[in-house]
Amino acid sequence: MAHPALLIAIEGVEGAGKSTQATRLGRSLGAHVTREPGGTALGEQVRRLLLDPASGDIDPRAELMLMLAARAQHVAGRILPALATGTHVVVDRFSGSTLAYQGYGRGLAVDEIIRACDFAAGGRWPDLNVLLDLDVAAGAARRHDEEADRIEAADGAFHDRVRRGFLELASSDPDTWAVIDASASPDEVAEHVLAAVTERMDLLGSGGRPKP
Ligand code: Z5A
Question: Do the strands 32-35 and 128-133 form a parallel or antiparallel pair, or are they unpaired?
Fold first, then answer.
């Protein structure tokens, strides 16, 4: 294939605007838009288990394994087949979230998570991670649902570690991470996301420039 399709992950803390921007970017690219945990029948069932407060305290390693079981199914069943047909894939959360939440947030060793993510996704990592960076309290204030899910309900210190983790991941790998100020309006954020994606596409020669 002359122009390989890209896997683009939208990352950030709760309420940063990931779903909003994934949808908008997907429209601009004509991409397959999906989410994690989820994206397949199995993944959506695992998502329910992970987010249901009734699941209680899940051991961090069990939480990691559930996230990665959903990922393995998603990559094999949806993501790789879409990429193989030349369709870009925009995913609302991927391996960056695993590193930030299960690593920086829950305290599991980041190098072990990298190996586990690599195994689960058969070595596939995003071609670009777009970090929508937002203050944790500002993100939580955007939530309109009545009850926090099991992970949202973790304390503020956990979510602060997650935000710091995302920023550290981005600064240690600037080639595959773009950091965008998510406190701007949705239109402004979308403009910056598109600019970051276009730059990465030009660099990788992936073609299929997005519609403005
Ligand atoms: N998780 C994990 O631990 N490990 C992993 O490996 C993976 C995930 C893959 C589920 O994710 C949980 O799984 C998540 C991490 C964990 N837990 N947490 N916390 P999720 O993505 O479904 O949950 P979320 O981050 O809480 O999603 P969210 O609340 O839907 O946030 P969002 O997608 O970033 O935001 P949004 O839905 O686009 O927007 C939220 C509201 O803000 C909405 O009313 C918008 O209209 C509004 N909005 C959006 N953009 C703006 C701007 N720019 N300004 C003002 N208002 C805005």
Answer: unpaired
Q: Is the pTM of this model over 0.90?
A: yes
Render pLDDT for 20-54 as a digit per residue (tens, 0 to 9): 999 999 999 999 999 999 999 999 999 999 999 99
DSSP-derived secondary structure for the chain: --S---EEEEE-STTSSHHHHHHHHHHHHT-EEEESS-SSHHHHHHHHHHH-GGG-S--HHHHHHHHHHHHHHHIIIIIHHHHHTT--EEEES-HHHIIIIIIIIT---HHHHHHHHHHHTTT---SEEEEEE--HHHHHHT--SSS--TTTTS-HHHHHHHHHHHHHHHHH-TTTEEEEETTS-HHHHHHHHHHHHHHHHHHHT---PPP-
Q: Residues enclosing ligand 1, CB less than 6 A?
A: 12, 14-20, 36-37, 67, 92-93, 97-98, 101-102, 142-144, 151-152, 182, 185-186, 189
